[in-house]
Amino acid sequence: MKKVNVGVLMLVGAMLSFLGCSSNQVSLKEVSVQENLSPNQILDILKSGNEHFVNHKNAFPHLDKARMLEEISGQHPIATIVSCSDSRVPVELVFDRGIGDLFVIRTAGNSLEDDMTMGSLEYAVDHLHTKLIVVVGHEKCGGITTAISNHAEEKKPKEISSLIETLRNGVEPFVGKTEKLDDAIHYNVIHQIQKILQNPELKELIEKGELKVVGGYYHLNDGKVDILN
Ligand SMILES: [Zn+2]
User: Fold this and answer.
1) CATH for the 2-228 domain, from 3.40.1050.10, 3.30.420.240, 3.40.50.2300, 3.30.413.10
2) Of the N and C termini of the chain, which has fewer Cβ atoms inside 10 Å?
């Protein structure tokens, strides 16, 4: 795996050097970076970034003024991340990415159950041409904990009840089984991926190898994201 990561980084480095930029000051042609990377190479970049995060060695790329200015003309993110809104899962930091790198959809319980979230995902693929989607669940997810609790309906404002009801779609077999929280979190990630696969356009791109979808599980204690296949 290390060899692959090094290979990808060398490829990106070579491209950036061709473009006359340092790794922390990528100049605009990132559109060509996006076009030339395969879904698997993008996944390797995210895995490598997560290794930086786990080892407290983030490079914090793409955060300078030049990057801000070049992104004004348009974004070309390399991946779409569907993540929980939980403040303990800071997505760009977790993958050591910066401005314009990731299109992030965050909801309680990393859910794609409504038109707004699924529409955002379609936009990221159809219009921004992201080639990799990572659905990231996380340890001790409060949204999933509440959704599988038997007491979920008690004395909640209408909107939160509706949220819990929605989240339950992704963890149906685990309602009432709070001791199986971790299984429910994994199950929910797979459920969201299945929802993506139900979208004919996205499914076609996946079958053609132009789009890849993977699950992830984030550990709160060390920041590691396990990639679930
Ligand atoms: Zn959560």
Assistant:
1) 3.40.1050.10
2) C
Whether 154 shows a pLDDT value over 80: the answer reads no
Phi, psi torsion values for 60, nearest 5 degrees: 45, 60
Pairing of strands 132-138, 102-107: unpaired
- Environment of ion ligand 1 (residues, CB < 5 A): 84, 86, 141, 143
Q: Quick check: 85 and 106 in contact, CB under 8 A?
A: yes
CA 30 / ligand 1 centre spacing (Å): 32
* Residue closest to 63 by CA, chosen among 52, 54, 55, 71: 71
pLDDT band at 86 (very low <50, low <70, confident <90, very high): very high
**What is the pLDDT at residue 17?**
37
Entry pTM:
0.86
Please report, rounded to a whole number, the percentage of residues in the chain having pLDDT higher than 90.
78
Decide if 33 contacts 74 (C-beta within 8 A). Answer: no
Q: How much distance in Å is there from the Cα of 131 to the middle of ligand 1?
A: 25
Rounded distance, CA 49 to CA 78, Å? 13
Which tokens go with 50? 């997560």
